[in-house]
Specification:
Radius of gyration: 20 Å
Number of helices: 15
Catalytic activity: 3',5'-cyclic GMP + H2O = GMP + H(+)
Shape: globular
Pfam families: PDEase_I
Distance between the termini: 61 Å
Structural class: mainly alpha
Pathway: Purine metabolism; 3',5'-cyclic GMP degradation; GMP from 3',5'-cyclic GMP: step 1/1
Protein name: High affinity cGMP-specific 3',5'-cyclic phosphodiesterase 9A
Strand content: under 5%
GO molecular function, one term: metal ion binding
Largest sheet: none
Mean pLDDT: 91
């Protein structure tokens, strides 16, 4: 299947936040990624050769590891949400194509060669990545480095026909966006965005840079903004990766990350706090700039309420089980 063979119905569905990634195989996903570059006019605007784009996407596919969450399907989900937001907010009429290219490519590359163990583990375990990057966003720095390893090869360099100045701008933008996905910078970046919102100016590069960081952050953690039947399996995948890390931390005598401990974390409890204190505030602020996103905040509210109901039911089940044990 080539991008030319993707139906108009699928192309329109691909632009929506309700897109169900679970219905597509990896080979089909690579075609859908190609569609995104085509339908945003990147192929013609930036003189990207089709065989080079295909090789780039194949190299990206190869450099995502077979781990529960931070895998190629996650790469696609984040990129698809970014793509959907670009269309939903009509960003094409507000910022340059080069910034859109930066945003989409950053999403594609944002977790390249993720190990399945977060920065806290990298630093505490003194891994090669932590040593190489001096404990400063080791994973995110690595994702950037792998992205530009791929782009250094002529056969997979989708920017090879661009002038040097444009390439420099793209490289700077991709690095900024990917480094922004380090969750230890969450409050810093959100506060920057809130500070400029009252006077936001799309012609101001500093304002656009912060917006681009917010957009990739929203896309990166947006699973819970999707329909529940799409979001739920992702939470299972994430918890599996978390539990793998906490098991390793216990085995190696390292500090155990509390929200990853399989003995302390439940699905509803992990969802509720994350949605309410991380995802929801991000969407609220983005909706202040783009009122069309208010419907997504309503959806997130609905998810929060459903998760709370689940948590209450789960708590009652645990209490009933404990009472029965006491009786025995």
């Amino acid at each position: 299947m080539s991008s030319l063979e993707v139906s108009e119905e699928v192309r329109q569905y691909l632009k929506t936040p309700t897109f169900d990634n679970w219905q597509w195989e990896d080979a089909e996903i690579m075609v859908l990624l190609q569609v995104m570059y085509t339908d945003l006019d990147f192929i013609s605007t930036f003189n990207i050769e089709l065989d080079v784009l295909q090789q780039f996407l194949y190299e990206v596919y190869r450099r995502y590891n077979n781990i529960p969450f931070h895998n190629f399907k996650h790469c696609f989900c984040v990129t698809q949400m970014m793509y959907g937001l670009i269309w939903l907010t009509d960003l094409r009429s507000k910022i340059d194509s080069i910034d859109l290219l930066i945003m989409l490519t950053s999403a594609v590359c944002h977790d390249l060669d993720h190990t399945g163990y977060n920065n806290a583990y990298q630093i505490n375990a003194r891994t090669e990545l932590a040593l190489r990057y001096n404990d400063i966003s080791p994973l995110e720095n690595h994702h950037c480095a792998v992205a530009f390893e791929i782009l250094e090869k002529s056969e997979s360099n989708i920017f090879r026909n661009l002038p040097t100045e444009q390439y420099k701008r793209i490289r700077e933008g991709i690095i900024k966006c990917i480094l922004a996905t380090d969750m230890t910078r969450h409050t810093e970046i959100l506060n920057k965005f809130k500070a400029i919102l009252p006077v936001f100016d799309f012609s101001n590069k500093d304002h656009r840079d912060v917006l681009m960081m917010i957009m990739i952050k929203v896309s990166d953690i947006s699973n819970e903004a999707r329909p529940m039947d799409v979001a739920e399996p992702w939470l299972d995948c994430l918890l599996q990766e978390f539990f793998n890390q906490s098991d390793m931390e216990k085995l190696e005598g390292l500090p155990v990350t509390p929200f990853m401990d399989r003995d302390k974390v439940t699905k509803p409890s992990s969802q509720t706090g994350f949605i309410r204190f991380v995802l929801f505030p991000l969407f609220i602020e983005l909706a202040n700039l783009f009122p069309c996103l208010e419907v997504r905040t309503d959806s997130i509210n609905a998810v929060i309420n459903e998760v709370i109901r689940k948590r209450v039911r789960e708590t009652e089940t645990h209490r009933e089980r404990d009472r029965k044990r006491e009786c025995v």
